[in-house]
């Protein structure tokens, strides 16, 4: 009996998939990266399935690549040759939702927006909202410490994670963290797993913090600026004034043109950048103040929603950004994050880089966090980004690091950014991280070659 | 030349202290624990002093016990025989304070409240505010992941820590984290150091997140309740209503009596618990709503401040809690944290435990977080808590764990709680934590015997 047949016999019928056409569909995420060939895929339905798979993988020294919905943008769930692709997408139970304690205990396959909707039935919300929230899973969000639009106010996935249930490489089950709002017993193993991209173990449940949802839908404003720098100045002024936007997004000229070419929104040719912001409604809200600060910073036009429908229309512009770019060609979506004060300079640096390397870059930024997504657009006929795109990306990464920033704000390192990683963290951090990896996964079977 | 003479020669004059009367003063924190005898104390003034000390300690296999102001309540900075007590209290520079990026880079000896005051000169604040904020250091706060009164709104020390500079046991200098609001390059080493109680390395600088200070001083309210359960119900109602208190503190009957015996505040004998809450002033503030919710939950009396002076007077009651107890005897200050919904039951459990073991327990709680500080009062003549106090503490710990809680919300494990640690975390977490320790400190010289 070969190893895969043995695994299939250990798991419920239909759990192990071996048809190459089928396993190929499990082998990649949303990047262009060409995956290796998996041995098989496992559709886990329970923690026991995960335990069985990992015990077997340890026994047979088979690499394990965990995956959720495959919406990753850094190659974290790309197959390596001879691996088992372990899908957690079928573990979709919300095991518990406690309004009194404002926590939920969920399995990793729960879709982010589904948890948010379940919470809202109790007047609560799940705050982290990556742009992929309708399609990405909590497990994937945990693996990359996903951010999102609202994280300017509520923080990233780590800030909403209280505890985890993890299956280690050898099949042992570990509980980390707690159900309480704070605690400091031993090292922060929860924080270690969040953002570890499947390299330390497989998360099979998470205790997450929910928050009270605002009583009324937020007020949205959109402001058009004659330069990215003016928009950056408005962001700085909004933060300095103590406003607390729920989201604060910036779109550059190229992004706006891509949207206009597609949807004909009537964009004024002089508009070089747009800010979209949301504030809580009501007397403590900041919409009017933010609008005034945008005008003071030189906005040529500011619209503030007066109804939920108008709010939806304005935020809808932001949602068009990514699909509009995909119409232009294949996309390398990057994810640098800089100190907020460096945002205008970083936008300028990206524009200069684009010109220098004759590359099309459209940038959207979670401006309140200094987190920019420069999207490098290239010929759809190419299997991967051409050399000028890589050269431009390299320049953007280095500019972000020079500005005191980071390679990745919320997408993770995956495979894509590994070659730049130690530019940021230095060799000593790399050595320590490899040491930690060794403690949790001495055989090196957990998502090898990723993240660290 | 013996080892200590050699160290003294390597460091600036006056840095190494060997007079036993002097080193004894460095050998303990605020617990009753009897320390070992240090070899010497080092008053570090710079990162270089720390590097030199740790290189020397590695060479000579000398245990190193880092300390800040010695305000710890779990024995984390208690000397072991033959150790060097490494004081960071003299590293007091605020290296940078950037209003634009809302960050500060500080050395570990900076007093918490001094950083807050420096931030307020720019309209900012440093949010974590342990009760010891006027005397404890940022380094100590980081070592224990300190919480405080405001953490119900702003989170604990980890939530304000973006990056660290750490000297490892062998003297190598590690930079962790970043200056940006988010990032996910490699494992979260920053989170690993926060709360590690000096067992992984010595923090020599921290990049901390500041926040905009509210424009107006908060409104304070005090509410008296006929039972702890009614106060607990009010806490639940306040949270469920979506109020966002800046602090939400509960004092039990014994605490109130201790304050009244001392300061004669005219306490009504029927009052069994008091809530002290603060809300932001202004239209978005919640003081009036919280007052109404307290009345609905059965408060016999509610006072809401109308001036900053009245606010100070009400919050002053809370500040009296700890000194009032110290008048009663020696104190074992505990620190359990439970899910918020378990708060009333936990208060009842503590009262029953006190009766069963004929022990005086006064409880103050950061009620909004479910974090209780039962203070076990015992005869000042005793060197350490008598058996009935330990038996009662054991029961309280187990009750907290049974309620889904934790042994320590914000004080750390130190020496005091080590024997209960694996009751909470289990043996597997213990094994992994020892593995992590081994990666950072293979010789085991960093604060041996503490935290894990």
Explain this structure.
Chains A, B: GO terms for molecular function: FAD binding; oxidoreductase activity. 2 copies of one chain form a homodimer. Chain A has helices at residues 3-10, 20-26, 47-60, 112-120, 138-144, 151-154, 189-193, 228-240, 253-263, 287-296, 308-326, 343-356, 387-402, 418-440; strands at 16-17, 40-43, 64-67, 84-87, 94-98, 103-106, 124-125, 161-167, 173-177, 202-209, 211-212, 219-225, 247-252, 273-279, 301-304, 330-333, 360-366, 371-378. The first copy, chain A, is an alpha+beta fold and 452 residues long. Chain A folds into 3 domains: 3-87, Uridine Diphospho-n-acetylenolpyruvylglucosamine Reductase, domain 2, CATH 3.30.43.10; 94-212, Uridine Diphospho-n-acetylenolpyruvylglucosamine Reductase, domain 3; 219-402, Vanillyl-alcohol Oxidase, Chain A, domain 3. In chain A, the strands form 4 sheets. In chain A, strands 15-12-14-13-17-18-16 form a 7-stranded antiparallel β-sheet, with helices on both faces. A 5-stranded antiparallel β-sheet of chain A has the order 5-6-10-8-9. In chain A, a hairpin with a 4-residue loop joins strand 17 (360-366) and strand 18 (371-378). The longest helix of chain A is centred in the last third of the chain and has 23 residues, at 418-440. Chain A starts with a helix and ends in a 12-residue tail after the last helix. The model of chain A has no long low-confidence stretch (mean pLDDT 95). Chains A and B meet through strand 9, helix 7, helix 8 and helix 14 of A and strand 9, helix 7, helix 8 and helix 15 of B.
């Amino acid at each position: 009996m070969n190893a895969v047949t043995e695994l299939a016999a250990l798991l419920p019928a239909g759990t192990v998939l071996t048809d190459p056409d089928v396993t190929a569909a499990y082998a990649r995420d949303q990047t262009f990266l060409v995956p290796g060939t998996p041995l098989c895929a496992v559709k886990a339905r329970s923690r026991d399935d995960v335990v069985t798979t990992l015990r077997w993988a340890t026994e047979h020294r088979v690499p394990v690549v965990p995956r959720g919905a495959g919406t990753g943008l850094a190659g974290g769930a790309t197959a390596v040759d001879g691996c088992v692709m372990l899908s957690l997408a079928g573990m979709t139970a919300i095991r518990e939702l406690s309004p009194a304690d404002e926590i939920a205990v969920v399995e990793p396959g729960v879709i982010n927006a589904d948890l948010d909707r379940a919470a809202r039935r109790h007047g609560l919300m799940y705050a982290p909202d990556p742009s992929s929230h309708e399609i990405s899973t909590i497990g994937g969000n945990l693996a990359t410490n996903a951010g999102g639009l609202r994280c300017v106010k509520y923080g990233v996935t780590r800030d909403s994670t209280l505890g985890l249930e993890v299956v280690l490489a050898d099949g042992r089950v570990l509980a980390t963290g707690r159900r309480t709002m704070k605690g400091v017993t031993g090292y922060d193993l929860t924080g270690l797993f969040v953002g570890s991209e499947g390299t330390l173990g497989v998360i099979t449940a998470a205790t997450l913090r929910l928050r009270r949802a605002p009583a009324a839908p937020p007020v949205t404003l959109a402001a058009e600026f004659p330069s990215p720098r003016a928009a950056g100045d408005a962001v700085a002024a909004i933060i300095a004034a103590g406003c607390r936007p729920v989201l604060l997004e910036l779109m550059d000229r190229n992004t706006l043109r891509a949207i206009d070419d597609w949807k004909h929104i009537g964009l004024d040719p002089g508009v070089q950048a747009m800010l979209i912001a949301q504030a809580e409604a009501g007397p403590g809200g900041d919409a009017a103040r933010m609008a005034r600060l945008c005008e003071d910073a030189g906005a040529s036009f500011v619209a503030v929603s007066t109804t939920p429908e108008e709010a939806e229309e304005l935020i809808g512009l932001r949602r068009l950004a990514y699909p509009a770019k995909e119409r232009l060609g294949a996309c390398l979506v990057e994810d640098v994050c800089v100190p907020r004060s460096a945002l205008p300079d970083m936008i300028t640096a990206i524009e200069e880089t684009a010109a220098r390397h004759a590359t099309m870059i459209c940038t959207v930024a979670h401006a309140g966090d200094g987190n920019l997504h420069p999207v490098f657009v290239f010929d759809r006929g190419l299997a991967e980004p051409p050399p000028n795109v890589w050269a431009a990306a390299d320049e953007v990464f280095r500019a972000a690091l020079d500005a005191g920033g980071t390679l990745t704000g919320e997408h993770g390192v995956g495979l894509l950014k590994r070659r730049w990683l130690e530019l940021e963290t230095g060799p000593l951090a790399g050595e320590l991280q490899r040491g930690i990896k060794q403690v949790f996964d001495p055989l090196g079977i957990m998502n090898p070659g990723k993240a660290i």
